Amino acid sequence: MSAVTPESFQMILKLVHDFVRTKVMPREREIMDTDAIPDDLRRQATEMGLFGYAIPQEWGGLGLDLAQDVELAMEFGYTALALRSMFGTNNGIAGQVLVNFGTDEQKAQWLERLASGEVVASFALTEPGAGSNPAGLRTKAVRDGGDWVLDGEKCFITNAPIAGLFVVFARTRPADESGTGIAVFLVPADTPGVQVGVKDKKMGQEGAWTANVAFSGVRVRAAGLVGGDADAGYRAAMTSLARGRVHIAALAVGTAQRALDESVAYAATATQGGTPIGDFQLVQAMLADQQTGVLAGRALVRETAQRYLSGEDRRIGPSAAKLYCTEMAGRVADLAVQIHGGSGYLRELPVERIYRDVRLLRLYEGTSEIQRLIIGSGLIRGARR
Ligand SMILES: Cc1cc2nc3c(=O)[nH]c(=O)nc-3n(C[C@H](O)[C@H](O)[C@H](O)COP(=O)(O)OP(=O)(O)OC[C@H]3O[C@@H](n4cnc5c(N)ncnc54)[C@H](O)[C@@H]3O)c2cc1C
Questions:
Q1: 61 contacts 241 by C-beta, under 8 angstroms
Q2: Residue 73 near residue 247 (C-beta atoms within 8 A)
Q3: Residue 113's pLDDT is what?
Q4: What atom of ligand 1 comes closest to residue 370's alpha carbon?
Q5: Domains and CATH numbers, the chain
Q6: How far is the CA of 385 from the centre of ligand 1 (A)?
Q7: Is residue 23 very low, low, confident or very high in pLDDT (cuts 50, 70, 90)?
Q8: How far is the centre of ligand 1, averaged over its atoms, from the C-alpha of 366 (Å)?
Q9: Is 30 a residue of the active site?
Q10: pTM score, two decimals?
């Protein structure tokens, strides 16, 4: 059972809903133009506990479970996706590695600081040539006395320019049949030898920053090896990513809902030759396809989160939800631009940003192709058992 009662959760959800609609939405253009989340919004998010909503209460978080997490994610998806990115790594891919695999000492050292927003954590898995197939990563961790020494380079690391902590995956030995030989380390950003590259110039999600991170001769004490287990890395990454996929699916549903709402509002009022474009049945058909996708996605996300929580399905369902919802959001955003005609191509309108923002959802935390592989191979493995 969740640590947060349904009544308390409804209050949190209402606060987040109001924050998104009244505080963040009016600033979307500013976020896009400045490529930054304004400090005052960041402060408000911190005060609301948003840096730690999915971190257990004993470590200073709000302690929401995944079914509650997806409800928040659908709210966050309604505005610039950069907002969610700001605290997404603390609650999600990076934070969950600590929550599920960290020792008590590691949790005590970091989780409260993550939950309060004092420290931003980044999840550093991807490398040039090792994205879809992280088992091929080449960053090395070599034992030296009681320490580990890390060498390698990571790319596309969300929040790297503002991170205080890197959760770094590294190979401790060549892959063999007994395990993957991948460990995960907690590396404070100010450790000598850690170098964060320049901010990447991205297609969308302005205000959310990524960069390469190089590790050269970075010395990490034994206490920085997550779980004290040199073989836990691959499992930790896969566990964190599977949970994250349900969250990303929910985010996609929120964005698709926004694209739909923008489309309906536009179609109901904009005219051609004196006729509201919403009276044209071909426009209505586009709205119908958008609405159907949103409803299907929302139902899928909610059921997937429940099945994840009960332990019934923590692999195929999350991939199916991410695949369906992110592809759906891409189609819905594309239709939104279409419904807006030429105006949809202009920076002035939210649908132009949404079209670019959602493109990433089909790429990170496993591309659509990788989700299909997980679903298909999982089904075949299940049939052979
Ligand atoms: C803005 C942004 C933020 C990110 N944030 C993070 C982060 O915080 N931490 C982190 O570790 N990573 C992060 N990533 C990395 C992201 O997860 C990877 O880019 C993604 O997993 C794809 O890997 P890749 O870029 O190496 O592409 P590739 O794996 O090279 O994929 C290229 C194409 O080949 C296809 N492909 C690859 N392998 C197969 C296969 N076996 N079968 C069929 N098709 C295949 C892919 O589906 C894709 O179409 C981020 C990326 C971006 C762009």
A1: no
A2: yes
A3: 97
A4: 47
A5: 6-115 (1.10.540.10), 121-231 (2.40.110.10), 235-384 (1.20.140.10)
A6: 30
A7: very high
A8: 6
A9: no
A10: 0.97
